[in-house]
Amino acid sequence: MLKYCSVGSGSSGNCHFVSYKDTNLLIDAGLSGKRIITGLNDIDAEIDKINGIFITHEHSDHIKGAGILSRKLDIPIFANVKTWCAMKDKLGNIKEEHMKVFENDKTYSIGDLGIKPFSIPHDSSDAVGYNLFSDKEKISIATDIGCITDNIRKNLYDSKLVILESNYDPNMLMMGSYTYSLKRRVMSDCGHLSNEEAAKFCVDLINEGTESILLAHLSRENNFPDLAFATSKNVLANNNMIIGKDLNLEVLSRDKVSKNYGL
Ligand SMILES: [Zn+2]
Ligand SMILES: [Zn+2]
Predict the structure, then answer these.
(1) Disulfide-capable partner of 79 in 55, 124, 138, 203 (CB 3.0 to 4.6 Å)?
(2) Cα(71) to centroid(ligand 1), Å
(3) Taken in order 144, 147, 148, 150, is the CA torsion positive or negative?
């Protein structure tokens, strides 16, 4: 069974755990090494059997614990060249053999899992989302996306489970304490996805075969879990899509480990 679990997801730290048969991968390690290990223990993941960490981009909420985990668990880190250049100095000492480079839009096999990084628009060196494949199913992880591009659509459609950014409520962002330039950055096509944008895309995903969507990477300052959920629920309802009947919709916690989702 292809399994997914969030160790934590939000603007202050992200780490996803995906496993299939004997292969276990982390996508991002943006919490402290200690928190990630505690979280993985809570879901009975076999920590000494993790095969590697795949990085989406170099922002600290995605790489904070990556260096520590690579050293502690003796595991490789995978990223594209531009992301490696941008994050290398922030990770501490990484064994040469643990510095693995991939190319975007190619599918790789790591043990029993297939994994494909695909380009997304975000204000970092070369950010990616990921498809993860078992023999039959596909999971997709897409956070830190400024807008929904054709490439994102192409890669996310047909995923049974999608972890999708629902970062901010536009009113909270505008009324909040961020500087004007930071507000513009968040709202730009290379920033983050708003609740409304995520909600609209949920409709397309369900029409294209997705059964379950987990809203992720919520802003601490500019969002609430209930608000993100309600926004998607309303847009889905306007399109005659009922949560619990036509799809499963949940919000991932910033601080807590999620349940195990099995496909
Ligand atoms: Zn980012
Ligand atoms: Zn982020």
Answers:
(1) 55
(2) 24
(3) negative
Dist CA 97 CA 145 (whole Å)? 31
d(CA 223, CA 85): 32
Locate the domains of the chain by residue range. Answer: 3-258
Model-level pTM greater than 0.90? yes
Return the ligand number nearest the Cα of 120.
1
How far apart are the CA of 107 and the centre of ligand 2, in A?
Answer: 23
Nearest-ligand number for the alpha carbon of 61: 2
Mean per-residue pLDDT of the chain: 97
Q: State in Å: Cα 122 to ligand 1 middle.
A: 7
Q: For 67-114, how does the pLDDT look when each residue is reduced to its tens digit (9 = 90+)? A: 999 999 999 999 999 999 999 999 999 999 999 999 999 999 999 999
> Taking the domain 3-258, which CATH number applies?
3.60.15.10
Q: What is the pLDDT of residues 186-242, one digit of tens each?
A: 999 999 999 999 999 999 999 999 999 999 999 999 999 999 999 999 999 999 999
Residues with CB under 5 A from ligand 2 (ion): 61, 144
